[in-house]
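Researcher: Re-running this chain for the archive, since the previous output was lost when a drive failed. Same request as before.
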Amino acid sequence: MHITLAHCWRTWTVLGAMASCVRVRSDRHGRDGRERLLRKPSDSESGPIIGTLVLLHGMNGTGQRLRNEIFQLTHGGFEDALEDAGISVIYPTASEQAMVMQVGRCWGGVCREENPHLAAAEDPLDLYDLNYRLVLQPLLQELDETMGLEHVVVAGYSVGGNMVAQLLRLGPKNLAGLAVMKGTVHRDPELWAAIGSQAPRLFLMTGSEDHVTLASDVQGIAKEMREVGMQVTVAENQVNHFLHETEVMDLADWAILTLNSQDFSQG
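Model: Regenerated structure tokens:
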């Protein structure tokens, strides 16, 4: 049975050793036929739904694994904060065509090195384009129909953050915000100048001890973006490439502030 994003649900699941129950629904047969994991607050408990956060996993991951990791890091606090604010969370999984080492999937970039078939492709951006076309574009179209993209934030961790950065090139410009968590934003002054103040709000998160993304110049990138009218928030913590509780809660705070700034109407 297909249930659109406009509906609410209450299904119980137990996550690993935490043995903690949360309301969650795994939608594996949605309009686009792609696997995704959704968590949505009930209107009766949390007031009106004000928006949706789409959160992308890193390399060799899935939406379910990222959700489990965040749940354990924050003891459920991440989703509780968003639920209290009336924000749904969606954890999509990259296309099955982007399989890495037969156990996880990836959005693009470095993933090609782990997959001989993908490594043979000529264009390093092919995988980003593929995942956008097969996974994110159908999801964003459905969200646009149900609540409008101005009430949607897309965030991603590591390679998922790289995918989010690619949305400046690939995606719609009327998203409420984009959050790159320890991903790579490549300089593209021509693109930034073209979209300027029309770009979604940006949240760039980096770690001073992160030797994977080497995002030491994130402040310089943010400065260049601001010079052409883009709204950019930067958070730099003294942490490595792994996710940390403070960073995840910072994302929740930013998403809440961003979506609360929108003039949302259920009708």
